[in-house]
Design a protein that fits this description.
Number of helices: 9
Strand content: under 5%
Shape: globular
């Protein structure tokens, strides 16, 4: 998990800073090698995690084994599909200096679709648990999972639609990123922003309520609120960065 998080952080960091650094800081060929290694490392690490998770379950009963096998098959099928698509994407860039943008739509759809399906499944497990226990925390987790899954579906839909606005064949591009959809996706963008905020805040609030009962046993109040506030502050800054930082940085932009 640590290795997977590290590879994701490397990839995300490069994307985040790409628009504010010299585009020739890393030549095109090393960029492609870095992209290939990072992508294949993510797939390989996810395969090991799926295998480890399956072997860690000690289940009794036919229904439990069937559900676990089904989850394993779906996960592995999605991962293999992503591996094939990533291989085609990398091959096209190496040998033809272009890639087919529809492949990125398939990758996004499979990734987010599988995640949304599992989280919806998890939400119904929470709801089933709530029906037997009537615990409000469990019901809040049920709602949080539903909101997160809806956000994943809207993210995949929005991303796929925006990719269709680009040419079918894309060559290596040195310029910056950005959204070229203009005003065509305003409604979907607004829905995406709302569900992103709701999904984060719902799971943060639910976790805060859950952790409140453990506060006296684990933390002193000051440390508790500092640790709890860090992810909320980080999210608010990154979510509203245009409003927060625009006045401060306007003289430098």
């Amino acid at each position: 998990m640590i290795a997977l998080i590290t590879t994701i952080l490397i990839d995300t960091s490069i994307v985040k800073i790409y628009d504010v650094v010299d585009k020739n800081f890393i030549p095109l060929q090393p960029k492609l090698i870095l992209f290939s290694l990072n992508s294949l490392s993510c797939l390989l690490l996810q395969f090991f995690i799926i295998k480890q998770l399956r072997s860690s379950f000690k289940l009794d009963g036919f229904n439990s084994r069937l559900r676990t096998s089904l989850m394993y098959i779906i996960s592995l099928a999605a991962l293999c599909s992503l591996g094939v698509l990533m291989g085609i994407l990398i091959f096209q860039q190496y040998y033809f200096q272009y890639y087919t943008t529809s492949i990125t739509i398939y990758i996004t759809t499979i990734s987010y679709g599988t995640s949304a399906a599992f989280i919806v499944w998890l939400s119904f497990l929470f709801f089933s648990w709530y029906r037997s226990s009537h615990n409000k925390i469990i019901f809040l987790y049920f709602l949080s999972m539903l909101i997160i899954s809806s956000n994943l579906i809207i993210t995949a839909t929005s991303t796929s639609i925006k990719v269709t606005y680009r040419p079918e064949l894309r060559g290596q591009y040195v310029g910056g990123g950005g959204d070229i959809s203009g005003s065509r996706g305003v409604l979907l963008d607004n829905i995406l922003r709302i569900t992103s905020f709701m999904s984060f805040f719902s799971i943060w609030l639910t976790t805060a309520i859950l952790m409140k009962s453990y506060r006296e046993k684990l933390f002193n109040p000051i440390l508790y609120w500092i640790l709890l506030s860090i992810p909320l502050i980080y999210f608010v800054v990154t979510y509203f960065y245009q409003l927060i930082l625009a006045r401060i940085l306007i003289s430098y932009v």
